[in-house]
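Data card: per-record layout.
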Amino acid sequence: MSKPVARAVCHLVALLLIAFVPSETSAETKRLKFGEFGEFEAKIPDGWRVDQGEQYTAILVQPAEENRMIMVLEPLPALGTPEEVASTAERLLAHKKQQLEPIAEDPLELTDVRGDHARVRYYAVIDKAVSVSSLQNAKYADDGVVEIGPVLAVFNLLVNEKDAPERAAAIDFLKSLRFVPPD
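The structure for this 183-residue chain is written out next.
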């Protein structure tokens, strides 16, 4: 292989690596209202849409390419110690498991991941009754809770593909949450 061809191959490999390695700058940090309780700070992937109503109502999160994934995050208006938040999370997860077991194709397993300021626990569900998946009738869902310091939020994430990259990006979004108390 000649030197110019070898150099071109090296440049091509470097460009491919740059193109496919996630960048730390690929997310915008944004603050989301949590009513009178404060705010959430989150890293929003580039091009994603985050819509929120007044007070501490549900937050709708969608990637740039619509109809790939939708997530609803609902902060709960209750502050507490980390122990109280964890206890409430346990009760919510037990209730969610009870609701999800009858529709789940496979036995439910709890996933537990942590960010710098958030703990995300959820059940990944494959709905056995859905044959053709759509966001209105998704086959794949992640349903769980996020503990963010002294507050708790519940979420439901719906996707059409089991291994959709948006699914992992949404979990990373949840892991990035940080509670900012009011001034």
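Known properties of this structure: The two ends are 65 Å apart (CA to CA). The chain has a mean pLDDT of 80.

See the next section for split statistics.
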